[in-house]
Specification:
The chain is an alpha+beta fold and about 190 residues long. It is built from 5 helices and 9 strands. β3 and β4 (about 70-80) form a beta hairpin. α1 crosses α2. The structure holds coenzyme A.
């Protein structure tokens, strides 16, 4: 079962109807402030295709987030491969939401479900997350869902164009192991 419901959200596979609102949020400078430029229509569509192909191939990935009764698509939250960080297999929990839906705790709610899915269903030993230090909204989600800051694993992102975006090179690293997660949800 790849779809999940939480108190307020439906976390689901992607639909053709998501393409327009996804392209709109990927072209919003506020949403893309900490990325290497906007993702215009072609790149947005290609990313959505990659996300769905990953679900088909591996049975896990980034969910399209729906708020039933409020909005059919507000962005994505879920798991994504991050092997490029060290060369070893690694899975990150990640998120991107349309600006109009920030500030409601939707990402925190969905990301907690992503941890449960990753540890219980996918069988991961560790889930990580990382961002640039100035993306405070993002690392605050990491802290809210119980990820631990691990400064010794901070890194320079290999896919960032350091000449064009020097401020996006250094990343702060957070992680959570399955046993720590189990102990925290039992409390
Ligand atoms: C990073 C991002 C996903 C965070 O979104 P967000 O809405 O701040 O995160 P949450 O859903 O956890 O909501 C937390 C906020 O909702 C508030 N909130 C309201 N109801 C809440 C609830 N029931 N539970 C938790 N928080 C709640 C919190 O107080 C907090 O508000 P504050 O920031 O004003 O203190 C969003 O800013 C985004 O999409 N940014 C652009 C893309 C991006 O940078 N992605 C990450 C790349 S590493």
């Amino acid at each position: 079962m790849t779809e999940r419901r939480t108190d307020r959200l439906l976390l689901r596979r992607w639909r053709e109807a998501d393409r327009d609102p996804f392209a709109a949020l990927n072209a919003d400078p506020a949403v893309m402030e900490h990325m290497q430029g906007l993702q215009l229509r072609d790149r947005s569509d290609a990313f959505m295709d990659r996300i769905e192909a990953h679900w088909d191939a591996d049975g896990w990935g980034l969910w399209a987030v729906e708020v039933p009764g409020v909005a059919p698509f507000i962005g994505f939250v879920g798991l994504w491969p991050a092997d490029y960080v060290t060369g070893a297999p690694m899975v990150e929990v990640g998120w991107r939401l349309a600006r109009a839906h920030w500030g409601h705790g939707y990402v925190t709610e969905a990301a907690r479900e992503a941890l449960r899915f990753g540890f219980e269903d996918v069988g991961l030993d560790e889930i990580v997350s990382f961002t640039v230090p100035q993306n405070e909204r993002s690392w605050r989600v990491m802290e809210r869902i119980g990820l631990r800051r691990e400064p010794s694993r901070d890194f320079d992102h290999p896919n960032v164009d350091a000449e064009a975006y020097p401020q996006l090179v250094r990343h702060v690293f957070y992680a959570l192991g399955r046993d720590e997660w189990k102990a925290s949800v039992r409390r």
